[in-house]
Amino acid sequence: MAKTLSLPAGPAPLDNPLKGWCAYSDPGFVHALPVSLAYFYASWRELEPRPGVFAWEAFEKKWESPLARGKHVILRLFLEYPNEPTGLPQWVIDSGVKRTAYDTKEVGKGLCPSWDDPKLLEPLLRFIAAFGKRYNAHPRVAFLQLGTLGFWGEWHTWPVEKLMASLTTQKRVVAAYRAAFPDVPIHARYPYEGTNHAWLGYHDDMIPEDSLGTEAWQFLPSLTKAGRTENWKTAPLGGEMVPSAARKWLGEGWPTLQKAVEQLHFSWIGPYCPAIEKDLPPEQKARADTLVRRMGYSFRLTQLTYGTAAHGALELTLDGINEGVAPFYRDWPLEVGLLDETSRVVARIRPITDLRRWLPGPFSVKASLPSPPKLPKLRLAVRVVDPWEGAAQPLRFANALPVVAGGWTELTQL
Predict the structure, then answer these.
(1) Which domain of life is it from (predicted)?
(2) Are 172 and 179 in contact (CB under 8 A)?
């Protein structure tokens, strides 16, 4: 006879992988709140100092800074960063690529390259292919921002619009990233003509100041106009809070921040975010925790039904609910297992399910394990398998259930 158990709810973790705060991890910063993602800018100059010679290992050493250790990463490539040294490799500059000086009160100054020049574009497309070869299958890379073109890699050169890449170049760069990173979710800054795709996620870098509103340039209106308000169901949305404004938006602006997360289905916020603010008032810390638990996915298991079939197999149905605002965006497998009294796995199976399809609302999983061994204190457990073995924390459920070695959540003793 089948048994049905209600599974106890618990608070969702504040540092579950691939959601929540994605903070700067460079020296000088402090993480005052739990952080699960580390954000890294990378310049083409840094990564390809000589044609075909790549400095991947040196770049990845930055990922081992104390604040980034054990965390998945989000990457953004840039070529032009106002008021900072160029991101162009010297060998590209030496090839004769034209650069135009700009100096504005809005963004500062620099030398903007001619994006359409084949002396820049052709080696750039080759670099993107190499970039994907290195990082598409890298288990630590969570998401990628399209970056590359425009100031800060944000696909604009405002207020000097004439310096932006042509639409043809934009489309070639997008196609190159799509080919190089077929498995990594990619965010674009805006749903422009060249970046208006069903497979793209988007990032708002002025959360929540421009997230809502009615102006055409604001984030939600721009998604609406482009027909991309449903992209969150298959591609992540995230972005940066307005720098130095965390206290405002966790204070009197709290309703606006909540509304932005709800309506835009944000999974992560950073690199500027409340996690790097020191001495937040207790009420604002509590609000920050509330926001993290709501962002992205939040899986709570609600009910377990299990029993032995006529042929001896252990059959079960596991029900739950995604209490977040978005699904999980990577193809990580779910496992159901049997653990002995020392938490050793004695049987396991990967049922047919896809976490990427667990939209907000209920979900259900069915599994059938071979006839369980006759062992004392045998426990039924479940886990989500992170392909990166170095992760500081496994994905955990919003349940008051024990989590043991290997990230297994124990459901019941058989």
Answers:
(1) Bacteria
(2) no
Contacts with 171 (C-beta within 8 Å, 6 or more apart), sequence order: 194
> In the 8-state DSSP scheme, what is residue 350?
-
Rounded Cα distance, 70 and 37, in Å: 9
Give 100-135 pLDDT, tens digit per residue. Answer: 999 999 999 999 999 999 999 999 999 999 999 999
Q: What are the φ/ψ torsions at residue 214 (nearest 5 degrees)?
A: -125, -10
Cα 115 to Cα 120, 130, 172, 395: the distances in Å are: 7, 19, 11, 41
Question: What is the pTM assigned to this prediction?
Answer: 0.96
Give the phi and the psi of residue 322 in degrees, each rounded to 5.
-90, 110
CATH code of the domain covering residue 379:
2.60.40
DSSP H helices in 54-161:
56-61, 90-94, 118-135
Residue 405 in contact with residue 15, Cβ under 8 Å? no
**Secondary structure E strands in 340-393:** 345-349, 361-369, 379-384
List the one residue out of 36, 92, 95, 24 whose CA is nearest residue 297. Answer: 36
Domain assignment present for residue 135? The answer is yes
